[in-house]
Design goal:
There is one protein chain. This protein is α+β, with helices and mostly antiparallel strands. The protein has 2 domains: 2-98 and 230-411, DD-peptidase/beta-lactamase superfamily (Beta-lactamase, 3-Layer(aba) Sandwich), CATH 3.40.710; 111-212, no CATH class. It has helices spanning 2-18, 33-48, 95-107, 154-159, 173-181, 189-196, 214-226, 230-242, 296-307, 320-326, 402-411; strands at residues 54-61, 64-75, 80-81, 88-89, 128-132, 143-147, 263-265, 271-273, 293-294, 311-312, 315-316, 344-346, 351-353, 368-371, 377-381, 386-391. The chain has an 8-stranded antiparallel sheet with strand order 3-2-1-16-15-14-13-12, sandwiched between helices. The chain has a two-stranded antiparallel ribbon with strand order 4-9. The protein is globular, with a radius of gyration of 21 Å. The two termini are 21 Å apart.
Amino acid sequence: MTSRILVYAVAFAHAALAASIPNARPEEVGISTERLALVRASMQRYIDRGEVAGTVSMIARKGRLVHFEAQGVADLDSKRPMKTDAIFRLASMTKPITSIAVMMLLEEGRFQLDDAVSKFLPEFKDAKVAVANRPNERAEGGFRLLPAEREFTIRHLLAHTAGLASGSGGPTLDLARKLQGERKDGELLDGYIKRLAKLPLSFQPGTAWEYGPATEVLGRLVEVVSGVSLDQFFQERIFKPLGMTDTSFYVPQEKLGRLVAAYGKSGEGQLKKLAPSRHESAGRYYSGAGGLAGTAEDYLRFTQMLLNGGRFNGARLVSRKTVEAMTANQIAGIPLWNDTLGGYRFGLGFRVLTDMGKSPSLASIGSYGWGGAYGTYFWVDPKEEMIGILMVQLLPYAHLNVRYDFQNAATQAIVD
């Protein structure tokens, strides 16, 4: 075990140079150095098996950083070592940032959570709902249209209960996927949202939970209400105050050397590099649902702001009560993904653990977080004052348990 502690000590020394919040020896905040070494071992097993090329993992407790380590490589072809300042495609880890932007505008009195979205985006007025012609039909067999019983609201969008046509399910699944595939080069967010609004809803607003383009619509809402692009709002109102200097919709040319290669799996199960993503060139499509790229350190600043009740780095983005509302169960008993995400319900931008007995990983009631399509993941545990951030780049990642293994290895290290 001595050698593992020594390896960890080297990683911690690196963390002390790079971290954006104060460092602590693990024991100073109730974490065992010896047990925390299991995080490194767990991540290394995934790398050794060839399931991921590399990882960056980060753990903070009680406002102090106790683990920050890069393992493996950022690019298998060049064997470029993974570094802690590596830039990752965040995908849906963009959604919590967009949700915070929405709540900042709510606090300014620009709208109410239960305002109809059509009040600001009139293209969604008089929406119709697609009802499958066959019971429980999700994609085939056709559908008929019925009037929406109510207009969907900003709260519905934040909680993913608006019923927007989704590429993940529902009778309009094929239409939603076709819409996404028809996105043209140079199209701006406004154009995509207007095309989306022409599709029928998948269910009556407020009656189900389905993952889809809701946060894309919220991004456009921020633009309309604030009068600036989503990129400008993020930079001026969130990134600059928090010191998130490496997070953006498009990676600047001078930082492309830090962008981690993204991988899928070949038919033989080997890692296969994916084609360049939109993050690697300039553009003006600002996706509030999944467009950002950034570093683990930047995202720690964002999550520490949440754990601090809306403030960090001398700046307050939202109030403590707003964070409480965002991390409360907003969907009652409605299940997530047919309850395959055991023990969780949804708040205003985050999944929230409500039943520890069904959780797939170690956590406290009230823990919240989310992840991205390339495998990136974070959680915040207010009871334990703990944050975990994992960065990988594998699409799809769903067949791996790397997220759960990371969270379990981090949480089991608590000893106070």
